[in-house]
Amino acid sequence: MSLLRDNFGKKFIATGEASPPPGPDMTEFAHEVAEMKPMMDKIEGVNVVDIPGARVLMSSLGASIYMMQQGVEPIFQMTVRDRNMLALQADLISAATFGIENVLSLAGDHPACDAADHKGAKPVYDLDSTTLITTMKMMNDGKMLNGSDMNGKTNFFMGAAIGPTSSPLDGEVYKTKRKLNAGADFFQTQGIFDVEPMQNFLNLYDKLIGEDIASKTLVGIVPIRSYGMMMYLLSMPGVVIKDAVVNSVKKAQDEQKKTGKKGIIEDAGIDLCINLVDDIKGLGMKGVHIMPVGNVRALKAIVGSL
Amino acid sequence: MITAQRKPMEDIVKNLLDKKKVLVVGCNGCTAFHRVGGEKQVGEFAKLLKINTKLKDKDIEIIESCVEEQCGKELVEDALNEVIKGCDAVVSLACGAGVQQIAEIYDTIPVYPANDTFLVGIENRKESILSEVCKGCGDCILDETAGICPKTRCMKGLLNGPCAGVHDGLCELSTKNNKIPCGWMEIYDKMVRLGTVDKLLEVKMPNVNKRMVQLGDR
Q1: N or C: which end of chain A has fewer CB within 10 A?
Q2: pTM for the complete prediction?
């Protein structure tokens, strides 16, 4: 059963995101999940990231299962970077067995990207984010990727990503339509920090494909908590933060230093997101995917403002 | 054509510290074209070995030679059978195939590569350098991708790209000094010029049931 599937299109959706722990100590992650549990009447799920920026964490599958067991609905992010087509299917079967239905299909940041912490790791990319959706669709029909029968059917609600800051955008538009053709049920965008990239994407999608995509899409937003966090985000592939936003964070940092008060940057980050949500609603999008990066207070504040 | 570039000198020298007579062998094939393996480069490389700070006091004799194509067994034997006598190491300025050909023929003498070998490339795609364009995968799809190989020219080898990491038409692995064009944007642009961009809406599946083994003996 997927709350995300049940509510999609019926209300303005909000999803959260959590990072699995960077080692075997679950204390912080468990605390974060426990804090999110009472929010499950306001959010439709929590994304569990899969080694983002190619920096090693506990596996997304393991953390998703833990979350499921705690009563928090996971959106299991799955990249095709680290597993071949056998291992991807094996993990999808494991996910289905533990009741996980929401899966977000991603290519995954390359292990040699700036943010990565094992730059010599061998990437796999046996499938890509489109053919992983095809694979899940086949599994929902009771088939393996090779066409053979499984001993049952999965029930995946299949998500795919949109990168509205890709440039040029044309390729991203065609790829999005191709993912839709492959069977994607919904889309989540990478984090944006002002509404312009989303507006540009929708305009170009309409021009080149001539269809609505907003009604299937949740827009990614990130509450910035510190100047350092913003700089790290900028090292991630596909993240673009325009100067006006960078300057407003700098301004908040200066004020925080000057006054010695804590939380000024965090509050500014939350306000930026709340204002952005209004713009996103104005575009006819179906919801927001909030990436709080451990900042549950920000998640609560943004969800509370919806 | 095979592409290759010179290894850092310290990676080559570390193999030669205990040697007495080293044969430096060039190749007039692909690596000569790429200016890391021909006769001229053999001379330059031998000079660099002679003046290397870690080797110059060690009294190592350096012998120079060049083979027409190091991947050819008879060509190697004709060129090296005499000159290799008494040598206790070979440094090959060829590609990985040349290194392995010499190692197979002279199996009691260690052979060290002077180059890092890349795969199959073409000249002058960008900025007068050889660019890798083919992985020799044995499963060619160039008929479907406007004559540009995504398995090679997309850094992730995606069959359905581009990924969201493309920025200003460049791959997410680009740096200030190494601008890597996004292979999928090149495919897209070419398809626009050919009037076949609608092909991008088709999902390209991998060959799930084809045994991906290479031709020839291992």
Answers
A1: N
A2: 0.87
